[in-house]
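Retro notes (design track)

What went well: tokenization of the new backbones is finally stable.
What didn't: we kept losing track of which sequence belonged to which structure.
Fix going forward: every design gets posted as structure first, then sequence, in one message. First example under the new rule, 580 residues:
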């Protein structure tokens, strides 16, 4: 979709620029494969098969090849054959809940989370402010059947202690926060019945934020690496499943190389992304599950690395994040489970808002300011004027054309001035076609005498294109427009199912070009053909783009008609005496 839109922009810009010259009138680091089976945790590398074995904890066995404890009666292998995060798909986040666990619910005005005391895993995460288009009720982040999201494992030496199957004690048995309530905590505690080993885990919740603070401590170990499962990515919630599936990806912010995104469908087998990372996240089209190092944005902390186990048939990958334990066995991080809201994600810090970056990497520094400004203006108009986003887009398109009226007027008159010089320019080209040096001198002299500037007629007209490009990404990624209807359009962030709007947009473009060519006595045949083909081609391109983008572009075209009509009349008056 982005490539088609880029092609459309390039063609539109080419028409504006190239026609001024060609058709003058005669009068727009991949993840490393886990080859050495190692996890880089900060500055230390913990290798599988290298180093001292973990202390033996009876009853909490090292994870086997499928991340499960060995069957009763069998001795656990003293060493794991590979990283615990690289588990088989059947056991990597989709295992059925075993008996013994109880559910603990956390309810706030923003979400309802459900934890299972078996593994202290998150088994449900509903975002109450957003409706799911895949199932009745609110958006659900957890894939059906996932039972190990946020469950912990500990890698020490050559062994991995798997805590995803142990039963924790929960205190309290449930958390409920009303608007304005202070923060509340949910604590999970596991203590081995005979060995001096245990884990304390505390979640901190707020009524006004999707950020969850996490802290804990591993007892009985003096070193190790904490492995936290993030699961196979957010569940599908959009009406068209491919909208979510196409954008499923894991994203990391590396301390040196910055933000990097990898589509889950591209993960084949087991892959390792080496840290240190400020954060790691799994995203769909509009929602994200992320883990951020440190207790606060000011804390200088890092995650160790990321392990991805691909599921080729499902287009997903199970993600496990590593981080080194402190010398006292403690750890702390933050979770973000919520919508890709720019303001909320910016508050997390460490450029967490770049989980779903706007635009292509090379154009991102240019596109990002436009996106931020346009989004802020549209939201402000929506809240201040109490208008629906559809009417806000119409008003925005009209206001933008009014603001650009002087520049467009200057550009169109510059085109008329250039047209008047064309006969003289052609005469010079014919006269000195065999004398390039003299031809160049005479052309420069002509340009200077008549103030001829071949770019003056097109550069001001290119100013609306950054707005159009920015709006493309606004409607592709901005959560505020998700599910917002207007007139017959069910969702401004999706294509018009009736195709009325893109067809109207194409017709408005055709009328705009037709009026703009009135008053030109002689028109190049190629230019006439372009006038008919471009609206048809762009209508085809825009058929599957967001309705909001089509609405803005059609409004912008219609708002340009009066100015185009006045310029056409002015051009006719200038050219009529010359023709007579």
């Amino acid at each position: 979709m982005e490539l088609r839109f880029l092609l459309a922009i390039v063609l539109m810009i080419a028409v504006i620029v190239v026609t001024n010259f060609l058709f003058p009138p005669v009068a727009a680091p991949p993840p490393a494969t886990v080859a050495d089976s190692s996890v880089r945790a900060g500055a230390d590398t913990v290798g599988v098969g290298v180093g001292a074995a973990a202390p033996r904890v009876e009853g909490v066995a090292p994870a086997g090849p499928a991340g499960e404890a060995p069957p009763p009666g069998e001795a656990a292998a003293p060493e794991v054959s590979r990283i615990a995060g690289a588990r088989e798909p059947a056991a990597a986040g989709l295992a059925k809940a075993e008996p013994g666990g109880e559910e603990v619910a956390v309810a706030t005005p923003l979400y309802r989370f459900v934890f299972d005391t078996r593994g202290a895993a998150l088994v449900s995460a509903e975002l109450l402010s957003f409706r799911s288009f895949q199932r009745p009720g609110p958006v659900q982040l957890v894939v059906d059947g996932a039972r190990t999201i946020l469950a912990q494992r500990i890698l020490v030496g050559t062994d991995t202690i798997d805590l995803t199957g142990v039963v924790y004690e929960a205190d309290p048995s449930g958390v409920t926060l009303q608007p304005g309530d202070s923060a509340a905590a949910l604590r999970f505690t596991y203590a081995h019945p005979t060995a001096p080993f245990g884990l304390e885990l505390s979640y901190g919740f707020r009524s006004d934020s999707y950020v969850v603070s996490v802290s804990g401590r591993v007892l009985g170990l003096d070193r190790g690496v904490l492995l936290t499962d993030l699961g196979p990515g957010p569940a599908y919630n959009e009406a068209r499943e491919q909208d979510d599936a196409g954008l499923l990806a894991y994203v990391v912010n590396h301390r040196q190389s910055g933000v990097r995104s990898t589509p889950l469908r591209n993960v084949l087998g087991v892959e390792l992304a080496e840290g240190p990372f400020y954060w790691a996240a799994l995203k769909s089209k509009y929602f994200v599950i992320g883990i951020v190092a440190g207790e606060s944005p000011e804390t200088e902390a890092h995650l160790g690395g990321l392990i991805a186990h691909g599921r080729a048939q499902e287009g997903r990958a199970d993600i496990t994040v590593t981080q080194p334990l402190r010398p006292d066995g403690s750890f702390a991080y933050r979770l973000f489970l919520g919508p890709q809201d720019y303001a909320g994600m910016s508050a997390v810090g460490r450029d967490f808002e770049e989980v779903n970056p706007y635009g292509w990497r090379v154009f991102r520094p240019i596109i990002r300011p436009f996106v931020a400004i346009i989004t802020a203006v549209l939201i402000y108009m929506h809240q201040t004027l109490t208008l629906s986003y559809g009417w806000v887009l119409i008003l925005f398109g009209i206001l933008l054309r009014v603001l650009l009226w002087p520049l467009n007027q200057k550009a169109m008159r510059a085109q008329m001035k250039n047209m008047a010089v064309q006969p003289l320019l052609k005469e010079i080209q014919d006269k000195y076609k065999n004398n390039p040096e003299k031809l160049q001198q005479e052309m420069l002299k002509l340009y200077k005498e008549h103030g001829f500037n071949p770019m003056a007629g097109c550069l001001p007209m290119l100013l609306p294109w950054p707005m159009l490009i920015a709006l493309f990404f606004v409607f592709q990624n901005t959560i505020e427009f998700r599910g917002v209807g207007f007139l017959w359009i069910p969702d401004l962030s999706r294509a018009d199912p009736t195709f009325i709007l893109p067809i109207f947009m194409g017709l408005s473009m055709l009328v705009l070009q037709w009026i703009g060519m009135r008053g030109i006595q002689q028109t190049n045949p190629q230019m006439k053909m372009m006038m008919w083909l471009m609206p048809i081609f762009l209508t085809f391109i825009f058929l599957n783009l967001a309705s909001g983008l089509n609405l803005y572009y059609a409004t912008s075209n219609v708002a340009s008609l009066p100015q185009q009509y006045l310029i056409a009349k002015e051009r006719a008056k200038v050219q009529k005496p010359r023709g007579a």
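Added context from the reviewer: The first strand starts at residue 32 and ends at 33.
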